Amino acid sequence: NLATFYSERIKGDRAENIEKSISCYHHVLTVYTRETFPYQWAMTQNNLGKAYSERIRYEKSENLAAAIEAYQKALEIFTPQTFPLDCLKTGKNMGNTAFDAELWDIAIEGFAVAIEAVEQSRSWAASESRKQAILEEAIDIYEKIVQSYVNIDRNDRAIEYVERSKARNLVDILSSRELYPTKKIPTDHNLRFSYQVEPISFDRIQALLKFEFDENTAIIEWYIVSNKIFTFIITSQGKSPIVWESSQEDIENLLTWFGEYLEDYGQNKRKWQEQLSARLQHLAEILHIAQIINYLPADCDRVIFIPHRFLHLLPLHALPLNEGHNHIIDHFLRGVSYAPSCQLLQLSQNQQRSDLIHLFAIQNPTQDLSFTDIEVETIRRYFAPNDYVLVKEAATKKEILDNNNFLNANCVHFSCHGYFNFESPLESALILAEAGGSNGQLQGTVSENNRSLDSTKINLDKCLTLREILNLDLSQCCLVTLSACETGLIDFTSKSDEYIGFPSGFLLAGSSSVVSSLWAVNDFSTSFLMIRFYENLQSQTSVATALCQAQLWLRDTTIAELKLWIDKRQLSLNATQKMALHRMFHKFQDNSKPFQDPFYWAAFCAVGEFKLNELRISRLAFTAFNPTATRAIAGSRSSTQPTRAH
Fold first, then answer.
1. Which one, of 355, 356, 482, 473, lies nearest residue 416 by Cα?
2. Which pTM value belongs to this model?
3. 115, 433, 437, 570: which has the highest count of C-beta atoms within 10 A?
4. In whole angstroms, what separates CA 368 from the centre of its chain?
5. pLDDT tens digits, 125-153
6. CA distances to 51, 575, 629, 632 from 635, in Å
7. Binning pLDDT at 50, 70 and 90, where does residue 545 land?
8. Dist. CA 513–CA 144, nearest whole Å
């Protein structure tokens, strides 16, 4: 105690106080020996190391060596398995002391044992919230060990620690479900049945590219720390990732950019929409995206983005590569997909199902989105006769959750309203019938011509919330498409990048891939995008490829081409829908591109990965929108299906 008093003393000479503190600690160690009082001995060694690291007198190098020696002695007793909290404190002290002195190998030694202690503590924690808190409290240790490994050109080890800090709770839960497939996640998120999964190695990440994808696929992963942005570029051929480091100015510009983006989205959506294209151009410059893309091999035609923190909320696939209209998705012909982490991408690969055969769809449950009717009625043709659709007032929460067709579907499609609750993410919801009253409609709550709404005017008990999605068992599902607003947003405030949102909810429920939106989307353009997306699925082997090609088509199609496309597909349009189309066509010349702005085409992202069965593709490509084949299939459907009565 006297040593601690001297180390914290305000009066007197600081250098002299530290010397007295060191002297006291050495006296203590004549009584607290390793053999007789091992815990007290280790604690005193930790404190002595701290005193040496702050010592003013004598040679700095000698003091530094003495401090590190004391920390190392303490860690002989304070191991991650025996005393994880003390190990964390001592390892962090040792790491910070060496980091400040630019002794990177020793810093890594200290931080590595501290991280082991963090992860041991997480494995003992009784709840998801406690697991997340433990990781967030130690996130600076992960950041510093990543920087240390980059500084010694061990980028392979750096990316491994990036992965260890990302979405760890989701990784643990998905891994638990592989071992205990009958378990469900309780609504209080008590995860006592989960376990700590082994972190993914760089070799395994490369194997994922080589054997689950191909040599022409690359991964770009971001990691945001306090003073810079790390961008890791991973290919199947490289012996180590390429790492691009930003400047301090870049991170400051990025934080300012995102603050303005989020403020306008929340308070002035018209301004946000008008400035979206220019803002994406600015974001591309801040992230130096063109420079990063140039690191990839010339034959790379597919990329998987793994964002970090608030980058998850942004359409990185829509970043322009030049001053013209050339965007990232133009550069990668086989598409751009997203994943929360490499390890979650690997787990979603392990969960792949057989095929996209059975469709379960929700169609316009609030009866105020006229183009969702066209969307779903057209999409279901691809799955006939294995399509089951709950239409309008029939699409209640009870009818969905009690329906075996929902639980056994390979493809689940929600065409409805949705919203993300930033203050309480687990109460984010997909809006179903009866949510706004007995007739299911949401009078006065819906924004004009889009799939967003005033969430304060809905009955949450009648909606499907994220909390409830976490308890679903969609073990047969390959693809969930959320054709609604804000279904791709996440809780970006999590320092541990826990990725809490609809995509993670459906991934945890069992789906291999989720298509979701990053903002309040336009009803009109979204319907065309979704129809084209499912049309592309008949001839493409990847969800990401089908989605990106649909987005390029929507962006580049002219009024004249759109008219022909609508006629060829024989869309069932009522008088109101025909009038809406007529008004739109009347505003533009035939060579105009009405959906060229990123607002219309860039909102949707493919998260996870599912590859379609090529035999099924060749079979369905023949019948796709073939009027004769379609009528023959429709005629074979059961007349007892509830949706037919509607």
1. 482
2. 0.89
3. 433
4. 30
5. 877 788 888 888 999 999 999 999 999 99
6. 84, 26, 10, 5
7. very high
8. 33
What secondary structure does DSSP assign to 315-365, as a single string?
A: -GGG-BSSSSS-BHHHH-TT-EEE-S-HHHHHHHHHT--S-S--EEEEE-T
| Tokens, residue 251 | 């991170």
Could you give the CA distance from residue 535 to residue 517 in angstroms, rounded to a whole number?
19
Alpha-carbon torsion, ordered 332, 334, 340, 341, to 10 deg? -90
CA pair distance 170, 247, nearest whole angstrom = 31
- Reported confidence tier of residue 458, pLDDT bands at 50, 70, 90: confident
What pLDDT digit, counting tens, does each position of 484-505 carry?
Answer: 999 999 988 888 878 889 999 9
**DSSP-assigned letter for residue 201:** P
**What is the spatial distance between Cα 87 and Cα 475, in angstroms, rounded to a whole number?**
40
**Angle, CA 209 vertex, CA 617 and CA 141 arms, to 5°:** 135
Share of the chain above pLDDT 70, in %: 87
H/E element, 415: strand 411-415
The DSSP bridge partners found for residue 515 are: 481, 606
Q: What is the mean pLDDT of the chain?
A: 87
Q: Which amino acid belongs to residue 446?
A: V
For residue 312 the two structure tokens come to: 């998850």
The answer, yes or no, to whether residue 192 has pLDDT greater than 80, is: no
Beta strands in 451-533 (DSSP E): 464-465, 479-483, 513-517
Question: Rounded to whole angstroms, what are the CA distances from 449 to 369, 563, 624?
Answer: 8, 20, 29
pLDDT at 540: 75
Sheet holding 217-224, edge to edge: 242-245, 229-234, 217-224, 302-306, 336-338, 604-608, 513-517, 479-483, 411-415, 359-363, 387-391
> Which pLDDT value is given to residue 163?
95
Residue 432 to residue 429: CA distance in whole angstroms: 9
Q: Which of 419, 406, 606, 409 is nearest to 514 (CA)?
A: 606
Region of poorest pLDDT, from 159-168, 296-305, 524-533, 620-629: 620-629
The whole-angstrom separation of Cα 369 and Cα 446 is 10
d(CA 483, CA 414): 6
- Kindly give, in sequence order, each residue whose CB lies less than 8 Å from that of residue 473, ignoring residues fewer than 6 positions away: 184, 407, 509, 510
State how far the Cα of 507 lies from the Cα of 492, in Å rounded to an integer: 18
Among candidate residues 52, 34, 38, the one with its CA nearest the CA of residue 101: 52
With 70 as the cut, is the pLDDT of residue 373 above it?
Answer: yes
Whether cis (ω within 30° of 0) applies to the bond prior to 385 is: yes
Give pLDDT, residue 625. 42
CA distances from 633 to 294, 382, 383, 386, 540 (A): 48, 10, 9, 10, 22
Give SS3 for 119: helix
User: What separation, in Å, do the N-terminal and C-terminal C-alpha atoms of the chain show?
Assistant: 80
| Number of neighbours of residue 58 by Cβ within 10 angstroms | 12
